[in-house]
Sequence to fold (609 residues):
Amino acid sequence: MANSILIHNPRAPFSQGSGLKASVLDHLAGKVVGFIDNTKPNFNHLMDDLAVTLLEDYQVRSVIKRGKRVQSIPAPSAVVDELVAECDLVITGSGD
Amino acid sequence: MIEVSTVLVPTAPKQIFVEKKQLTLESLRGRVIGFIDNAKPNFKDLVDDLEQILIAKYGARKVIKLRKRAASIPAPTAYIDQLAGACDLVITGSGD
Amino acid sequence: MAVTVCSTAFEVLGRRQAASLGCAELPIVLVPHPFGSISRSALPKIAKEVAAQIANLMAEKNTSRASTVLVDHCEMLNVSSDVEIFHRLCIEQKLSDGLPVIPPTPERVQKMLAQSARKPEEVIARLAPAFGDATVARIATNAVMAGCTPQCLNVLIAAVEAIACPEFNLQGIQATTNPAAVWLVVNGPIASALGVNGGANCLGQGVSANVTIGRALRLIMQNIGGAFPGDMDRATHGQPGKISLCCAENESVSPWISLHVERGLSTETSSVTAVGFSGTLNMNIHSKNAHEILRSIADAMAHGPSNDYWCGGEPWIVISPEHAQILSEAGLSKNEVKQHLWEGSKMSASRMADKDLERTRRTRREELGEITAHTKLSISRSASDIGILVAGGEGTHSVYIPGFGNSRSVTRAVDAI
Fold:
């Protein structure tokens, strides 16, 4: 009959991070919306169409569009800092 | 105390061949010598040089030279049959 | 406020990674996958749907959302001592690479830890994409599972340091759809001390040090970094190198300075270099002429769907001792070989498919200016970005190892035992 043995767990616990609570806006009207284009095919078009929709249908005040050089690296700190400072909402792309 | 258990051996036994007596020639004089060129670089030139030496210096009667299409496949059965039927000695190439 | 627009096939990665970064409540809005295949005319409708979903988030502001429950974690587990039952458990719990592993008992882990002067609880790095803490103890645990000898621990600690460097871009390598894997190259005295093979079949199976060190790193990347295939690891096919790839440089037969000396370390220092790569290609070159060999290698490097060409990447060549000797006897230094390959592998941009050329234009505009179909693209930004390693046994083969593209190899010294 097999016994039981004790082993070390090879897995790490999920990182707790900083436990940030997602902040949510009351409404889109009058807000500044930023985009980080992840450079995947079609995201630039989605970004353009979404910008038009948000401005025309949701009365967003203005839109700032920024991008990454390639999708598999983080956005430059300067881009992140600019959007954090200027925008009420930032929309990013993920996946294919 | 470390437990001992019985396991099956994963390797196959070596094949046991009845050892055939190696045929030897008393001399090369008057013999027909065959070559199977393994198609590797320089072997063709070696065979050509050996042909001259075996005939001129060792009195071989004739040399038959056959070349494989590629190094990593066996010689065709027809080559084997031809050389086995016609030759007293067959020389092959191996490696690079 | 932040929102991520995510294609459906990547929702799992998106949500798991948001939770790993402490942002479990990050709103994710889904679009069809593959998003890039949708016609331009169909996108405005999708944009309106996305906008509506974002607007709905505002309306739901005051609605309580279920918070993500983090899985309880124990440092020790009670498992069956039966090897088959343990193997099945590891498969079910996704703790292994599919092959049986050695149970990391306290005794085995302790033996491993005795080889390092570092404290077991020291965090060497946090590994993407789940950003788990790679402690010395956890590295040792995965090393035991992989079958490493205790003396391999310091190599693995240095390897973990290397892959966690920003320029290596572990996040990209772990989560990509590309068949990206990590190749470890061991240099210096520790290579022979551990028996790491840099000779015949060095990229293949059979030598325990090679296979187990590479395997241990994969287990670390999976169990600590969190990238399990089909989950956060989004590889379309993967490749055999994802199981293990580790070798030594064949320093004793190389006519040039070795990789770690090239990178500023002394000959006597032991090191490990981590390379993000996409596969291997055999180059069977019988020529004995140096320039013919270089021309053949350069020709083999050039291919339209290459990540290196659209990114300006870091391709590698494993040069056989025979080819290296021919090149060296022709008077070529390692740097001159790199220069010849860089020039010879320049490829017409017209060989790329339209969308690949489009992204190349965008990605390398700053570096190369305006790129047209007639532009001759370099495989890397400079010749010095081509990696050269002399390794292997007898034979007329060198190996082309394309890079991941958006990754740079990192060399780290190995702690002395």
